[in-house]
Amino acid sequence: MSLRTTVAAMAAVLSLALPVAASAADLKVAYVDLQRVLLEVDDGKAAKARLQKWLEEKQKEIDKEQTALRTEKETLDKQASAMTPDVRAQKEADLQRKVMVLAQKWEKSRGEAATKERQEMEPIINKIDQVVASIAQRDDLGMVLDKRDSGIVFAKAQYDISNEVIRSYNSAKTTKTTAAKDAPTK
Hints:
By secondary structure, the chain is mainly alpha-helical.
């Protein structure tokens, strides 16, 4: 390749690259820790408390049934020598069936917990997304990344808008509540 062709090619590449580099220099980027925001906004705390209470109630139910099955097994073990082999086999099969039902109940409650968490958190996440979008628009941010899912290994704290998102989310909720209280009644 001649020198003239090389210079022409370099000029073409530079003419294409310079506008991209200039626009990249103007790009404003921030990041937010959405998991932290979700757990620290008032609605998130309330949802987490409701989920925790529900999980504790389910766990109490399962623990109660598990204790009853242990007691039944201990009773069966003590009385096994006085039983006929057929009766003992029948009682052991019944006990095994109850254990299986309890295991299925536990698995079902885990699925219900995941569904319940999704139902509780989805509206909050949508509101958080709206708050992030309004902050991004207000501050002319070209991009807002999620700290955990974006692959960010390091970023300066000055680019973290998590605290601002939490404040804006909670103040928006407070403003709506105050406006509802101050509204004239008919």
